[in-house]
Amino acid sequence: MKGSVISKESFKCLLNTDYIFGCVDNDGARLFLNEVALAYNIGYFDVSSEILISENEYGGHIIFINGDNPCLYCLNEINPAEARKYLDNPNARKDEEAIYGIDKKVLNGSGPAVVSLNGIIASLAVNEFMLHVTGKRVANKFLTYYGSIGIVRKRNENRKEGCYYCESIKGQREKVDISNYFT
Ligand SMILES: [Zn+2]
Question: How far is residue 35's CA from residue 41's CA, in Å, rounded to a whole number?
Fold first, then answer.
């Protein structure tokens, strides 16, 4: 289906999947996917590319949330204030679209030219997924690609003690009130 991932329709679709690939541009959608994946024990690949102009760095990451792996919240990969701002205010969603990379009006229907970077990150994610589902090996829980030096680093963080999502949401299925996201 086409439309916002934060919707009842998308939620129903997600419940019928074995794995989720989240390739989203905001922490509101990331928080939603993190919660759904944990509540229903669905393997979730968070796939993200990033250009940090001030740090002269570009790259991205693949985070695999599955089993006892840490969630995005454990890994500080969700900014709660940004997520809340996005979820609480439909206008903020429009604003974010307007400032993503470059003013969309100027782009005349095309997008920022990050296709080579996105290609690397997407291929890394698909490769991890293929190795995982074919049983060759368990997918890495956290890979980061540093474009400036051309290196992929494996990270090995563990769950953060006291993580609300890992400790109170995980495996709770319909006991978790996801409808909060749709109001
Ligand atoms: Zn967590």
Answer: 10
